[in-house]
Amino acid sequence: MPSRAVYTCSKSFRGYPCSHRQWRHPGHCRFVHGYSRSFTLWFQATALDDCGFVVDFSSLKALEARLAAQFDHTFLVNADDPLLPTWQQLHEQGALDLRVMANVGMEASAELVWAWANELLRSRDGGRCCCWKTEARENENNAACYEAVPNWFLG
Question: Which residues are registered as beta bridge partners of 117?
Fold first, then answer.
């Protein structure tokens, strides 16, 4: 949640159809299945930019491109998935667009996107603003959030 910020805003990115599997899950989540993922990011700043924004949403094109590259029509697998060699072969054969992640779950995806957003904001805006919360949604019923204020923003 915001620490000392006076201003906040949020931006949603929608429509990233991808598939994955949770190979350790004892139930049906161990099978390949998919969702159209979406992400909502919350930003904060103690001062507005020259245009009067916390974050100029049109300046997030690089983040939007990164989301598309990772999640748009891709197949996500954990790095320790025992079928990884098979998925890599299918990728090489053009049957799927493989992305290997430490954890394909929505909670870890929320944290990953939070880190990407803050990497962009810190390098571009010098710490004036940050992303303090990210929601990763797999459908209208299920979502996971990651919340943290980056240490560099507090200082």
Answer: none
Record the pTM.
Answer: 0.93
Alpha-carbon span 63 to 87, nearest angstrom: 26
Whole-number Cα distances in Å, 115 to 70, 119, 122, 130 = 14, 6, 10, 10
Per the CB < 8 A criterion, the answer to whether 31 and 81 are in contact is no
How far CA 5 is from CA of 61, 76, 79, 115, 150, in Å, comes to 24, 35, 37, 19, 13
For residues 89 and 95, give the distance between their C-alpha atoms in angstroms, rounded to a whole number. 9
How many other C-beta atoms lie within 10 A of the C-beta of residue 120?
17
Q: What is the pLDDT of residues 110-152, one digit of tens each?
A: 999 999 999 999 999 888 999 999 999 999 999 999 999 999 9
Write out pLDDT tens, residues 84-106.
999 999 999 999 999 999 999 99
CATH for the stretch 7-154: 3.30.479.10
